[in-house]
What does this fold into?
Amino acid sequence: MPMRIIYQIVLILSLLTACTQDDEVALKNLIVNGNFETDDGTADYTGWRGTAHLLDTGRNKMIPLIKNAPPQGGEWSVLIRPQWASQPGYIETTFAGANGTHIYQVHAWVKSPNWKAGISLIQRRNGESIRSKYVLDESEIWKQISFRDTFDTKAGDSLTLRLNAGYTHYRSADVQFDLIEVLLIDI
It folds into this structure.
C-alpha cells in the first residue's frame, strides 16, 4: 500500500475520532459537602442547616447522618424525617449565584420508601425568595433524580438548595439524600 494512502487513512481516522469526542468541560459542584463525609470517610455535616435531627438515647439532638449510602457513595447519607406540625423537616445549604442568566443542573440520590422526598433550588434576593424550582420523588431503593432550570441572578443574589421531607400530622417516614450536586452547565 503506498505511503500516501496510509497517510490519508490515518488522517481520516484522526478526524473521525476528533469529531466524535465530546467536548465536555469538567463542571465544578457548587455544593461544598454534597456527600456528607470527609475524604477519610468521617461523617461531615459542614455547610448544612435546617430542622432535621436525630435523637440519641437521652433524647438529645444529633446531626442527621446515618451509615447508608447509594452506589458510588461513601458510607454516610443524611436522614430527614417529616416534622410534626406545620414546620417541614429539611436541611439546606446556600451559595452565591453566578451573575446573569444561567442554567443550573441538580443531581441527588434519594431513598424515600412510602413518602415523597423534595428537592428545591431557591433564588433569594435581599433575603426574600423570588424564584424556585421544586421536584418530588419517591423510591423504595436508592435512585438518582435530576432537574435543570434557568435562573437570572443579580449581584448579591444567593441560591439555596433545600432537601425536604415535608411535614405530617399522622405518620412518620424516613427520607435519605446523598451525592448532592448543583452544576452550572452553560459555561
Summary: Residues 77 and 98 are 28 Å apart (CA to CA). Residues 13-24 have pLDDT under 50 and may be disordered. The chain is about 10% helix and 45% strand. Helices lie at 3-20.
